[in-house]
Structures are given as C-alpha cells and as structure tokens.
Amino acid sequence: MCRWAAWVGAPVFLEEIVSRPNHSLIVQSQQADECKTATNADGFGVAWYDQKPEPGLYRDVYPAWSDPNLAAVAAQVKSRLFLAHVRASTGSAISRNNCHPFAVGRWSFMHNGQVGGFETIRKQVDMAVPDHLYSHRKGATDSEAIFLMALGLGLDERPVEAMEEAVLQMQRLSEARGTTPHMRLSVAYSDGTHLYAVRYASDSRAPTLYYRHCERLGGYMVVSEPLISDVQGWVAVPQGAICQFAADGVEQRAFLQETTHGRAA
What we know:
Blueprint: E1 3-13, H1 15-18, H2 25-30, E2 44-49, E3 56-60, H3 68-76, E4 78-86, E5 102-104, E6 107-114, H4 118-128, H5 142-152, H6 159-177, E7 184-190, E8 195-201, E9 210-214, E10 219-223, E11 235-236, E12 241-246, E13 249-254, H7 257-261
C-alpha cells in the first residue's frame, strides 16, 4: 500500500502537505498509521500546476525521508493544486517509471490499492490500453494502466464516468483471471482545475480517504490519512464514493454503485 495527499485552493508551498504537518507525507513514508505497511519507502513523487496547463512532475526512487532535494523543492515551489505520493510496491519494480503521480497532457493521477492477481492479467491489461496512448505506458504498474484506460475512455469529456469504466474493466479482468481481493483503491486525479478523489473496493475493505477544509490556507487537503493528528475537521469519505473538489467547495456522489449492483453487474 501507499500514502498520498493532495491540495486544491489558494497557492501554498508544497511543504504544507509534504513536510510541515506533524503527520506529513514524509512522516507517513516512515510511519503510516492506517495501512498494512507502515513504511512506504519505494519512491515518491509530486505533480503540481502553475502557469502551464500541464503539470510539473518530480519523481524518484529514494525513500521520501532521505532525499534532501524533495525537502528543498517542497520549501520553494508554490502551487494552487498538487498531488504528492509515497510508494510501497505491491510487486512491480522500484523504478522512477513506476513512481506516482503519472501525468499525460493536462491530467495527473495517483493511486493506493491493489488489483488481485495483477501479474496474471498484465498482458490483458496492456491490451486494454488504447494504441494511441500506449507510448505513455512507461512503467509496469496496475495504477498507470488504470489511468491510461480512463484517458482512453474519455477522461477529458467524462472525468467521473471514464474512471468508473476503467476501474470496472480492470476489476472484471481480475474477476475472470486474477485473485481476490479483485479491486481496492483510493485514487486522486486532476485536470489542473478540479481535483477528483475516489474510495472504492470490490469487497468491504477500501483504503482510507479523508478531506479537510483548511481555512488558514484557503483550500482543501485530500489525503490517505490525516496530516495533522491533533486537529478536528477531517471528513472520512465513505466507501463507494467519488468527491470533486474545487477551491470553493466539494461535491460527492456514488462511485460505481449502479454499475456494480444494477443492470450492468
């Protein structure tokens, strides 16, 4: 499992998420409280938006706590919307191409979770990535594949529905050829204007997801687990939900409920 955190709102320094809070993302890379692996040492990454539509991207394979460059970047870079991630591999190699976030065009994406039996369905998963996007398949993770599948299903035009369809397609591949648990995920993704966050699982054990409106900084923190352990106001997102955040508010709706339990099941 991995840990991640995101911000949308007034421009703030990345250190407000990455290193300054008492349970910051760097602290969570050494001692996470709400996941199976307390240590998340298999790389880190940050995607941030500033003057251009496309995000900046900084990723490396070192543990987040041991790279002074990350602390220096976080102290100097200011952004109105950014995604940050520390990785604990569930099987794929420790390499820069496998570090989150992933970025294609104006979109960025990061993930925590697992697809049951991914190694047994990897060929079928790669075949589900559209030809015109396959050149962006730099790594070997299920996370990057879900992102590229969603892009191919119309993420630009249908940011919620395309992600639902990509997750369901991956889940169906696991159900047909993989193992349990077929799908557990929390994801965050952005087009540089809105931030989307999903908490979902094919069973009852979706990874944790929280958000908090921060009046002092003027925006929303969206996280795998709270960054400030002694502060109230963290909202736990229910399983099977997607939230859309903007600087001035949040909207929540069901994720995949009709599709998985209704006529398309």
